[in-house]
Structure formats: structure tokens, C-alpha cells
Amino acid sequence: MKNYVNWAILAPGIIANSMAQAMSGSVKNGNTKIRLYAVASRNLKRAEEFATKWGFEKSYGSYEELYNDSEVDAVYIANPHAFHFEAAMECLNHGKNVLCEKPAGCNMQQLETMIATAKEKNLFFMEAMWTAYNPCVNKICQWIANDKIGKIKHIQSFFCNRIPFDPKNRLWDPEQAGGALLDLGIYNIFYAMKVNSFSPIASRSSTVKIENSIDCWNSVNLTF
């Protein structure tokens, strides 16, 4: 039995560069459990350039080639989140473990299907929510659990960004599941959920949408 994982990256975009940099650095520092194996893009040249930059062994000009490569053990999915479900299901149905960028799905039905499929096939599936492993966040949760800073009464959290309107940008495109909630808002919700042991008993939300039905502002109230 091999003692390393053949990792592949699907969609070598901006966020995938950060992941590849971390993986490459880990390998250079002596981590023998990671093998930088393959990169898949809809554009072969882009995949080749990415693979050369970060030291991956193989380049594919289609996602299908990655799905069908039996040597791939785990796939980091980094395409726009409107396409996470399709990519994750293809990976799982081809026997690949999955680390999927946030949000893993665009709705609860997608997420439940992916989780059920992973369990059925005994595969690893996780959303790449980096704040889940942030040392500062975890230390705060530890302090709260140990009653070091007292009982939480209220959390107020804002995450805002000014992005010029561009209908071609994924953030403003309903076909790519654009909008504030799935891009930035989930960080606020995740943090509140994490420090309260993921146990909300009530929720209320409102949103402001522009003419193409993209949400540019959300307000969410969670009661625990």
C-alpha cells in the first residue's frame, strides 16, 4: 500500500494558486505524504503552465481526463461554485476523494447529495472552509468552551466589499451562482455557527437584490 496521496487540482484559477503554493511548500519542506500529481483545465496550455509553475507531474485539457485517471486519489475543486456540484459528483462517482472550495454546494439539496454519495462510496469529502482551521478562531472557540471569556450574549459580524458591477464577472452572474451570500456571507454564518456548536434554533434573513436577481446585500439573524 502506498503511503502518499496523489493530489489533483481541478480548475487552476486564482484561489488554486494559493492551494498549490501551500502544497508545493509542504512537499519542499519534506512532506512525503503529498504527491503533486495532476492539473486539469478546460484549456490545456493553462493546465501545463500551472503544472510547471508548481511542480505537478501531469496536465489535462479536460476535466474528464482527470475523472478517468485511476491514479488520482484526491481532487481539490476550485472552479466557480455554480459548478462545484457537477465536478464533485463526477469525482466521487469515479472514486476520488474531494476537497471542494467554499461553498461546496449552492443549496442544501446539492450538499446532502454529495455527502450521501461520499458516505455510500466510503470517500473523503470536505468543504475547503479555511476559517475552520484558523488557529485564532480555534483558540477563541477553546476559550469559549472552557468559559475563559464568559458566556456569549451576542455576535455582530459584517463582511463587506465594494465590487464594481460587471455582468461578466462571476460575482454578478446568476448563472454562476453569484451574489454576496455565497461569496462572502458564508464566512459570517460559519463563524457564528462554529462558536455556537452549529446549533441554531431559529433564523431570519432579508436581502437586497439588483435587477438581474443577484443579491448585493444580506442580513441574517441567527438565534442559538
Concise overview:
This protein is α/β, with parallel strands linked by helices. Helix content is 36%, strand content 21%.
Structural notes for this entry:
With 224 residues, the protein is α/β, with parallel strands linked by helices. 36% of the residues lie in helices and 21% in strands. It has helices at 14-28, 44-54, 63-67, 84-93, 108-120, 135-145, 180-195, and strands at residues 5-10, 34-40, 58-60, 74-77, 97-101, 125-128, 202-209, 215-223.
What fraction of residues sit in β-strands?
15-25%
Number of helices: 7
Number of beta strands: 8
Average predicted local confidence, pLDDT: 94
Main sheet record: 6 strands, parallel
Helicity, as a percent range: 25-40%
Radius of gyration: 19 Å
End-to-end distance: 46 Å
Assembly state of the chains shown:
single chain
Shape estimate? globular
Structural class: alpha/beta
Stretches with pLDDT under 50, minimum 5 residues: none
Element order: H for helix, E for strand: EHEHEHEHEHEHHEE
User: Biggest sheet, strands in spatial order?
Assistant: 3-2-1-4-5-6
Ordered list of secondary-structure elements with their pairings:
Blueprint: E1 5-10, H1 14-28, E2 34-40, H2 44-54, E3 58-60, H3 63-67, E4 74-77, H4 84-93, E5 97-101, H5 108-120, E6 125-128, H6 135-145, H7 180-195, E7 202-209, E8 215-223
Parallel strand pairs: 1-2, 1-4, 2-3, 4-5, 5-6
Antiparallel strand pairs: 7-8
Helix pairs in contact: 4-5
